[in-house]
Amino acid sequence: MFLKLSLTGIKGRLRDYVVLFSGLVMASGIFYMFEGLATNKTFLESNSMISSVVMIFHLGTVLLSIITFVYILYANSFLMTMRQKDYAMFMMLGAKGRKIAQLIFIETVVVGVGATVMGIVLGIGLSSIVQQMLVKQLEIKITHFSAVNTTAVLFTIVFFVVIFLLAALVNAMTIVKKPILSLLKASETPLPANRKPITLVIEVIAGVLFLGIGYFMMTQVMKLAFLALIIALITIVLGTYFVFHSILIFVLDVLKKRDSIALKKLNNFTLSQLSFRIQDYTRILSMVAMLFALALGAITVGLGFHNEIMKMTEATSTYDLVLNNGQNFSDSDFKKIHPSSETIYQQKEDANTVYYDRSQFDQTPLAVKKFTSNRQTKVVRYTGEQLANDLAASDQLRSLELPEQSAKKHQFLTNEEFSALPMKAAELRVITVKDFVKDKEALKELANENFSKNPTLDKNMGSMNQKSLVYELYNALFSGFEFMGFFLGIAFLTMLASCLMFKILSGAKSDIQRYSMLEKIGVRRKLLKQSIRKEIGILFLVPGLLGVIHVLFGLQLFTTLLSESYSNIWLPFLIFFVLYFIYYLLTVWIYTGIVMKRED
């Protein structure tokens, strides 16, 4: 009977429940995606430079659990706001509190368990899709990754079932204890706290100072190390809170006092709406801003590692291809690549010495890349004379030779002297192509063929001379962090935007009367919709902007890991803007549908 009544109640508000249900499905799906990574120790250790990243993910699990719990609280608040008047009507018709509590409990559990099961299925699908997209688009190598993770499935089910059972108990106890009149008139308006001007000014100054100290500490990480991180974390969290608890209120008050702004269209109503509820939004806006920074930072750093792969490859490898005994390669072997330069250094050798034609190095000096003091690289070119007289330069040439030649001396002869030697000449070929990315696979084939034609060449050591293999090495090292950055960034963005959306929607019912009164006194629906778009836009925009500022300063923390941490920063910002804007449009659409329903 109660199950049927619960399902009837859900069916009666199917549109609102679809919104709630889809949000909870997304939450559990994201949670499963994260746990699929966090509980796969083999994947984390196989695709990252440091195995300690496993501990980072365990800490991340705790953080995500807290965020998910907060998200469910706001989604649950949205559910109760929709149904509390119905419960009050049941009480007025004689239903006992115990029966109402059972009804609430069943509704909450049914919605929660159903959303969790569907969320896990969605999470498995999303994990597979995201993994394939990232591997294909970013050309990263991911090993030991499986979209289906039994441990993650069990952990997700247990976590969400426990959360929804607690939510069901809290909902039941809260509704039953409230008087019927309170249920009918609940959430009419959030009461603004009285704020003294001097308190507001002090908090504004404190917010600016805290943020300033936090941003400064981020630039001092190299000097103060862990102490700078602790101070930055504490001060930025406090500063973020004060931004919404005082600075935003201060700005809204200033705007309301400017007639040129406040008296234009419905701006005064919109600003009053924001001022009225902003203190109730302080915590959620602060959390959204911090999570926005974490999510955007994760994607930005992930892209930074992606960019680092090619930069490290370029810095390590001077030539795109090095061929030992190049005379064993025919012209047909080079048809798939597009050389921009090709140099042949002839070799002759006996038991103790490797002989070179000095004129060939004078004509085309040996190029070697060296790191400078500012982490950049420069190309140094060695002529035949320099190679003959400089031991360090000669060692650079030795790194391109075969292992059996490493113990032999170098001797650089004139062209006549070299030609007079009775030994058969071999070729050391060094090639640079016009477009490495385009020819990468063909270069890899030639590099592997070079190993097969020279069995004594150690592939582990000799691969550092082959640019295509160096690229694969760095790609394997950085791909784990790159993959996790994208994966987690998108997950956190979806979660934080959903939290903000449900916080806004949970107060929508109390706004119906305000918009209805404005419409009855003649305000056009077009202006009302503009007011809604502005109000929700500010609630989305402000934490987003503050989160962007946090990221711009926070990237200072990665200057030791990334050569150019701000390179191509527009791309992750664009990805975030698109996803964040979609949530904004969705929130405006749902909110407008709730507060501006026409009476039958």
TrEMBL record:
It is a multi-pass membrane protein. It is found in: Cell membrane. The chain crosses the membrane at residues 14-34, 54-79, 100-130, 150-176, 197-218, 224-255, 284-305, 483-505, 536-557, 569-591. Keywords: Cell membrane, Membrane, Transmembrane, Transmembrane helix, Transport. Belongs to the ABC-4 integral membrane protein family. PANTHER family: ABC TRANSPORTER PERMEASE, ABC TRANSPORTER PERMEASE-RELATED-RELATED. This is FtsX-like permease family protein. It comes from Candidatus Enterococcus murrayae.
